[in-house]
Specification:
six-stranded antiparallel beta sheet, 189 residues, 6 strands, alpha+beta, Glycoprotein, Type 4 Pilin, 4 helices
């Protein structure tokens, strides 16, 4: 017959230890890694798609703002992206307050894309009060900061308002090069 002390140690010897075995932990980690391997590429594709949609919309915004600038100030299309922005004060020909300051302030980065603006087709006669002469035309570009990571396609548009895209992610060098690319949509839709 076992005494009281011996019975307690016999009970402890039969009780399984609580916790996880090394095999159980390894299986759990492997399952988590498999789920991550499936989810992360999907997340990256979703982020690229969102960045591209935002870039196309920002190009649309720049096209619309350029048209408004042309109609409001009589200075042709704006001399630079900075002329479309504002400082919170009264809108002028030099600071029209038509777009977000992220787009109108160097380095012109927003949502994984860098935006460019180039006046085209010569300058107009600058009206009084305008610091710089505007242009008869323009080219707006949106290029991924890192192709394949922040976006795959680049976008461009000119005063015609049609947004074009390039699968290589390279910016269009001219209006003619932009117009030769596939059209995404009308900016005035």
């Amino acid at each position: 017959m076992l005494n009281k002390t011996q019975r307690g140690s016999a009970k402890n010897a039969r009780r399984p230890e609580r916790g996880f075995s090394l095999i159980e932990l390894l299986i759990t980690v492997a399952i988590i890694l498999i789920i991550a391997a499936i989810a992360i590429p999907s997340f990256l594709r979703s982020r690229i798609a969102a960045n591209e949609a935002s870039a196309a919309q920002n190009v649309r915004t720049l096209v619309t703002a350029s048209g408004l600038y042309n109609a409001a100030w009589g200075n042709g299309y704006p001399p630079a992206l900075s002329n479309l922005g504002g400082n919170g004060g009264v809108a002028t020909c030099d600071q029209a307050a038509l777009i977000d300051t992220m787009l109108s302030t160097a380095p012109y980065h927003k949502g994984g894309y860098v935006y460019g603006y180039a006046g085209q087709n010569g300058t107009v006669q600058s009206p009084a009060g305008c610091g710089n002469a505007g242009f008869w035309g323009y080219l707006v570009t949106a290029t991924p900061l890192t192709t394949g990571l922040t976006g795959n396609r680049s976008f461009c548009a000119d005063e015609q308002g049609v947004i074009h895209y390039d699968f290589t992610g390279q910016p269009a060098a001219s209006e003619a090069a932009c117009e030769a690319l596939p059209a995404l949509s009308q900016a005035s839709d």
